[in-house]
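Exercise 3.2. Students should predict the tertiary structure of the chain below and write it as C-alpha cells, then compare their answer with the key that follows.

Predict this chain's 3D structure.
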Amino acid sequence: MQRFVQSLFLLMVLLWAVALVRPSQVAAARKTPTTTGKHQQQVAVTIYNGNLGLVKDVRSLQLPTGIHDLRFMDVAAQINPATVLLKSLTDPQKLRILEQNYEYDLLNPQKLLEKYVGKKITLWEKNHYTGEERKVEALLLSVNGGPIYQVNGAIYLNYPGRVILPSIPENLIARPTLVWRLKNSIAGSQMIEATYLTKGINWRADYVLTLNAKDDQGDLAGWVTIDNKSGATYKNALLKLVAGDVNRARGEREMADALRGMAAKSAAEAQAFQEEGFFEYHLYSLDGQTTIKQNQSKQISLLSAAEIPIRKDLIYYGAQHYYRNRYGKPISNQKVGVYLEVANTKKNHLGIPLPKGVVRVYKADRSGSLQFIGEDRIDHTPKDEKVKIKMGEAFDVVGERIQKDWRKIAWRVYEVAWEISLRNHKDEDVEVTVVEPIPGDWEVLHASHAYKKVEAHTLEFPVKVPKESGVKIAYRVRLTF
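Answer key:
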C-alpha cells in the first residue's frame, strides 16, 4: 500500500511539472534550428566572366546532437542547388548530411491567397458613410483572375474589404532557404561552411586610355565593374575575380568537385587586386574586403599605368573576293582604318594579364578638355602580347582602289592588276599600311612599291604618304585557284 501511495505521488508531481511547461517552450523545442546572415562570420565571393559566382559562407552555429533539420537562410535567390556543399570546419567527420532541400516557394499575396482556397477567412468591411468597419466571415472559393468569396450563402467577386489571414502556411517562406537533415555529433558551437554557385552576378573590365598630343604615349586606367543581381547581399566579402573562358556543361551541371579545392585567402588592408595564375586562367584577388549589395553595380580599381608607349597605325584593307571577279567600276566606300597598338610588357609599364573588356580612348583638345575619340573591345591578353584597338576611320587620309586588269590566262589561272590611290590631306606626313589578302597560289609579277609577304595569303605595302599629297601603288599578281 505504501509503494502504491509513493507511485501515485510521483505521478502527480510529474503531471504538475508538465502543466507548468509553457506552450511556447514546447514550440521552441520542436522548432527547426535556423541560421541567418547574423550568424555569418565570413563570406568569400569568386566571380567569373560568364554570369556566375562562387559563394563561400562561413557561419557560427550551435546545433543539437543527433538527427535534426537545419534551415540555412539568406542565400542567393539564383543559387544552383545542385552545387551546394556543406561541411563543418570544426570537425568535418562529425557532421553528416542525410538530406538536402532547396525551398523557393516564396511568399507573395497571390500564393498566400492560393493556400487558403476552400478555407474560411476574415474580411473587414468599411462603411463609406460612417467610416466604421465590421468583421465578415467569408469562404474563399478561388483566386484565378481575382478572389471569389462566398458570404452568407451568396457568391461575390472582389468583395470589398481588407483580407485578414490567421497565419502564414508552413510551406511558404519569405526568402530562399536551404534545408538540410543533419546527423550531428558535435556538442556546443561549431563553424560550418556552405559553398554554392549562383547565377546573376558578373564582372567586366573597363579601361580608360588617355592619349598625349603626339598620339605616341598614353595613360591607362583599368576598372572592374561588378553587377550583382543574384538575389543576395555579400557583406565585407573577400573578393576574387577569374579571368578566362571557363567551360560549363550544358544543363547547368556545374563542376562541383572543383569547388572543394578553392579556398579563400586572408585579406590585407589595401584596396587593390593581386594577380596570380590559376589553372589555365588568371585570378585577381582584392586586398581587403568589400560589400556587394543586391542590385548594385560596383567599380574597383584594377590597374593604373602612365606614359605607356603607343603606336598609331593607318591600315587600308582589301578582301579576297576582290581577286575572283571582274569589276566594271571602281570599288568605292573603302576607308582607311585607324588603330592603336600597345605592347603589354613590363618595359611599357604593364606586363600583367589584362582581362577582356572595353577600352575607351580620350584625348585633350587645344583647350585642354578631354574628348572621347573611340572605343573597342579587347580579348583576354597575356603579358608580352600586343593589344590592338580599332579607333574608327580616318577623315583626312583617303584610300581608293581600281581594278586595272582581270584576265584568265589558263584553266584556273588568272592575272589581276590593281591601282590603289592614297591621298593625305593632313598637314603632316603619314604612313599607311595596305593589306591585301590574296587567295590561292599567287605570285607578284610587278609592283611599284616594296612589299612584304607577311603570311601565306597576305601581302603588305608600307607606304609613306607626304602631307597634302598622294601616292599610287600599282601591282599585278598571278593567281591559281
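Discussion points: The mean pLDDT is 83. The longest strand covers residues 386-410.
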